[in-house]
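Hi R.,

Here's the chain you asked about this morning:
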Amino acid sequence: MRAWRIALIAVIGSLILGGVIYFAVSHYGTYTYQWKTNLHSYKTYDLLGDSTLNGYIKANGEISVYILREEDFKKMKQGKPFSYYKAWKHVKKAEFEGIQIPGSDYILVVKNEENKMQWISVKLREKRSAQD
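And here is the predicted structure, written out as tokens:
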């Protein structure tokens, strides 16, 4: 009976600790997302609304980087006119310092501008505003 209580307390404690950590990171902390991979056509990353984006993207070939909405990304892939919030076109690197992401669903898209595969290296840090 005693081991059962200890196990229950440990599970409840783990859940509470996990919830506190998730809340702190999603509202006041940073997310870091990194990848180093072959880039075929597009690579995407979901952005937090009301956040600040810092970091960089580097490639060994020409890329374009867009911050846009999902519906505009679909238009881009179909070759239709699309809108974007910010863009870095035909570059080998893009650096982000204090880029304010609006309070809705935006994605960061890295588009391969060359026909061959490229290596890209990405490090993004996102911080949600403490006003949420």
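One quick note: The mean pLDDT is 81.

Cheers,
M.
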